[in-house]
Amino acid sequence: MRQPKGEGHSGTTEKEHPDIKVNIVRDSTGVVTAKLLAEKDNPQADAVWGLAATSLLVADQQGLLEPYAPAGLDRILPEFRDSQNPPHWVGIDTYPASHNELPLQKQGRGSPPTAPLPSQWV
């Protein structure tokens, strides 16, 4: 995981769980993914974050990720979570999609919520 996204994660964990030793391994997506797959029968990592979702999907398909249902899961709309129970999570970020109403009106395409979805995203 690149800095600063990973900053603070290990410090918080170490303060809340002083009995747990945290070793953070940073490398490229390909190297980390290859390590996870190579260590499948003798896992060395207890947690993985900051890895590409595509790599996490491969790890999940290989049975390397444990499903997890966090407290408050019921507050997450079903379309934004995995349908499996417990759910499998492969991402830590969400990105909303939006559009500007004024250009749609100028183009005669209406305005939200009746405007059609764009045919392409830039």
- Let me know the average pLDDT: 76
Assign a percent range to the helix content: 25-40%
Number of domains: 1
> Termini distance?
26 Å
CATH architecture: 3-Layer(aba) Sandwich
Strand content: under 5%
Radius of gyration: 20 Å
From the spread of the alpha carbons, the general shape counts as elongated
- Report the total helices: 4
Tell me about the largest β-sheet: none
| CATH superfamily membership | Periplasmic binding protein-like II
Short description:
Keywords: Signal. With 122 residues, the protein is mainly α.
Topology:
Layout: H1 9-16, H2 29-38, H3 53-61, H4 101-106
Based on the model shown, name its key terms:
D-Maltodextrin-Binding Protein, domain 2; 0% strand; single chain; mainly alpha
Tell me what the structure shows.
Residues 1-20, 79-122 are annotated as: Disordered. Keywords: Signal. The chain has 122 residues and is mainly α. The protein has one domain: Periplasmic binding protein-like II (D-Maltodextrin-Binding Protein, domain 2), CATH 3.40.190.10. Helices cover 27% and strands 0% of the residues. The protein contains four helices and no strands. The longest helix has 10 residues, at 29-38. It is elongated. The two termini are 26 Å apart. The mean pLDDT is 76.
